[in-house]
């Protein structure tokens, strides 16, 4: 009996000693670090010819198998996810770091061989590469590849390692020495970017310039694509007191793509030039908070891009009027909604009440009836965004003409298609429009092809309603009330056919212009660089123009900022309200102005200010208001209707837009990143080691 008990542990110990030793730790299998070889399979390794297609420029011709990762042959190395990653890395990173990543990765898959011995790549090269290129992987939400683990697969200099980037560095030094000093330092690829490439570019740009930039999503499109914004400021993610906020929006119509590309280029340009020490760009970013939404309609772009050929149709090049290239596919969103006809009609409310001095004609609330119509997810997201930040100025980039239009876009006479319909800020709107048109290379020229129109007489600008007005039809009186309309009746009759620029002006402090960039809505790639040259100065000048007029802070006697105070300018019946900390911005032209600050429960204070014509920054006018006892007969109509203005999606019909997808079990579904399809459709085991935890 005792012998039997003793025999069992001896047998187990003998089994462990005699069994083949496992070459891989259990946790490494998930990371793709395991080899199927056993200790008995090993045969003496010898140098063999390097014959990997994507690794044929390493500067040596012999390698050795098994390689560092345990691949026993060239075929096994080529069949792995590591090699597939190296073959597509240029497209994934849009060219950034791709030569370096590929060469260093190849040095692991196919290390040089000398005298039947493997020479490992240098750890210092790997560490420098990781430091320089980690942001590119983070931008596309990809983990750093396990086989580029600098401690695990690389060797120290004293161990006799080799530098896989030595040849590339030598070639780059020769190329740089041949460049003339006049060549631009900022390098941009002037090609079209798919939605996935656009997201990657913006995220990589923000990661590269993380000290002045970051990206955020304001919501999702109908088909679930992010509406991604890139921000530039010296304190990303935060509003700074007295620093104006400006936004640029492109691709509202999916088939009008030039604006989208220009804004992608602008983001890259701002990042690069700031880093290179461009004083003008540094001044803009250090004193302004810039928000760029390159594509408001990524779903429409997807449709348009799939149906448009790279070159223009030559048969249509001589036609008069707009170039009707048949590129109407993709204009609307995936619900077939024209996003620029989908905002609330506040303009007709303005016209009805503009002669009543007891009615506020700024910060007009959204009628409850609007929410019974069809509100696109993109429209909903942009409205929330506009309401959430104290934007001062904005431009929406379109295509189909060469002109800058400004509000109002809706005619003051509902049956008149073309009628001059100015806002109370007609003069400042004209100045904003001229800022862009005059800085554009050709927009204000008399001899410029106008796509059949005659805007050159106005120096390339026009009142939107005078150009063409968009009226949404008569709205039943029962649907015009702010509260409790009949849902069925209003959903049948209320048409959301009003434009974003009017909404900006009448619902918030923001003044938005519409920039039509040219006759061709989807120009060929050959035209992208010339269009960038024509528009770059105009974009920069428009960003700088937000620093005009007056700004200041409205405080109480204790020095606390007063949120929601009203600042008015005598002679202009359109007031602005203060932001969270009591700061405000009021765009006005040079001259003498009388400003008045008021707030409910506080005294009224007026000041006179003179703005000289040569002033290149906003004048600062601060106010201190004294607390007053509440009087029963106070003129409440003089203050913003905060309760009504705060009513947004009151029936909670659209809040689901932008929310994460949740499974039936109540668990948030984690979607795979866009690049996952490269690997999931290859037939090999999925490289989970590329997914970030």
From TrEMBL:
GO terms for cellular component: extracellular space. Disulfide bonds join 126-150. One of its GO terms (biological process) is peptide metabolic process. Keywords: Carboxypeptidase, Disulfide bond, Glycoprotein, Hydrolase, Metal-binding, Metalloprotease, Protease, Signal, Zinc. Residues 191-546 form the Peptidase M14 domain. The active site is at residue 516. This is Uncharacterized protein. The keyword Acyltransferase does not apply. It comes from Gambusia affinis (Western mosquitofish). One of its GO terms (molecular function) is metallocarboxypeptidase activity. Residues 42-164 form the FZ domain. SMART domains: FRI, Zn_pept. The keyword Lipid biosynthesis does not apply. Residues 1-18 form the signal peptide. Belongs to the peptidase M14 family. Its cofactor is Zn(2+).
